[in-house]
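Re: [help] complex structure
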Amino acid sequence: MTDRHLLSGTEPDLARDAGHPEPPPRVGFFTDTSVCIGCKACEVACKEWNAIPQDGLSLTGMSYDNTQGLGASTWRHVAFIEQQKPQVPAPDGRTRLPLVEAESDPSDGAGGELRWLMSSDVCKHCTHAACLDVCPTGSLFRTEFGTVVVQEDICNGCGYCVPACPYGVIEQRPSDGRAFKCTMCYDRLGAGQEPACAKACPTESIQFGPLDELRERAALRVDQLHAAGVDDARLYGHEPDDGVGGDGAFFLLLDKPEVYGLPPNPVVTTRDLPTMWKHAGAAALSLAGGLAVSFALPALLGEKRKGTR
Amino acid sequence: MVPHTEFESYYGRPVIKAPSWAARDIAGYFFLGGLAGAGSVLAAGAQLTGRPRTATAMKVSSLAAVSLSAAALVHDLGVPSRFPNMLRVLKPTSPMSVGSWLLAGYGPAAGAAAVTAVSGRLPRVGAAATATAALLGPAVASYTAVLASDTAVPAWHGAHRELPYLFAASATAAASGMALLLGPTHESAPARCAAALAVGAEEVATRAAERRLGMVAETYRQGRAGNLLRAARLLTATGATTGLLLGHRSRPAAVVGGLALLAGSACTRFGTFAAGVASAEDPKYTVAPQRAAANSSDEAAS
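Output below.
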């Protein structure tokens, strides 16, 4: 018995196992948030290329981020995090905006410099994708590039993928009922082009390419940042043996994942499915057994009563 | 142990997306599916032990419940006209796919059982249909727990070992309530016994789930979910006690007990549903347990 588990763990031959006989190398995104300038060009390019409807104009008041999060009509989302941090050396290439005086706000006990973290979030195209696993229609499928795509003409709007996603990415469009998310520009990939967001990114914060290559590049970048004194730099979603089998879109973050609205330790929901089915089977048997007992008991008691008479 | 302390999030916004399902449709479906499934087992038992009126009543109630539940499912789809797409594939990794096929087998069997029982025609077909419905019934009643727990919703996923038993017990309570309500009192002994067993099992499953869930268990105790689940406990306990003590001699008592059991089961399903939604909407229930898991695996590694 090997350690290989079909529903979780490492999966080196993703596209082939999904039924593509001669797949191209698996591709993905490496989003290096340390060079993101929060221009939201990726959001706009994504909307334009994929012809995604607007989600309305609203000011959230929570930060400069008025998009709030990924959703059915937002497939790239740039988070803006404002924090008060004690003196952090600025990494090379990071744009420093003279927003406020560098002195600390006396009312804030933490003190230190105000900094902005910006990060362009996207569907993670998980190796073990819960949305794909739970879709009852086969509308979600694994492409030859190893990405996860929804077929709009098959989705019947059951909404199961929505709570199944451990990252909160996929969503139903209220006006339509069907579920939508990033396709990693499947149409562009097929034509040998890079996705619209990566193409539009002016700082190469969003990098697109073969996943193996991106992982190497990311490891170098983290080392570089650590050498420059940015101790908080870390990769997120790059490990092929994490809870979702590694992400097809992974990130370099400058703080804990939850600060960016990302789950710290996501697990593909179907990892526990064998246990669930086992317990459901046992519960079904207990239901039948319990009712059998309920029929047997009165009969036995009735017999006894008759016997004693 | 999950520390109940501060957690960080992106301006308090949820990490996962809460289910967009309408409570009336999906929690209603959980309740109706349970009522139908357990009801078919009760009907078969009643038929085998010579309780014909209860048997027929339960067959009719199962058909009605499964028809309503299918209507609720289709109603909740974003594109109802594409419901047949559910039967394009059979995927064991998708509890909803498994459930659709289960319903496709169970529904017609429950229908045939009810129609033959009411019309009195084709007794052999009726017996076969009754047996098929009774075999598939427990699966229909308990798979919905897998449907809920195979999600990233903390209150459901965290209780994935206990929810099937809770759902099976709640289904038994609903079906025995229906039997008390519709069946004659001299046939109701098994239903009264089943209701008592169900109440006990529900209590055990709930406690086990709350223990395992740690801080996430508070989503089952607070707000709308807490109110519904407290009502559920009160109603099922009242229903089972009334049925057990008075159900065999007083018809009104049996009716009251039956109604209380049905209402209690519905409250259990709506309460569980509400707890799931509440746990998905607050990022702390996603972040805190995951952060604790990440920290403990880091410690193990170092």
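The longest strand of chain A covers residues 76-85.
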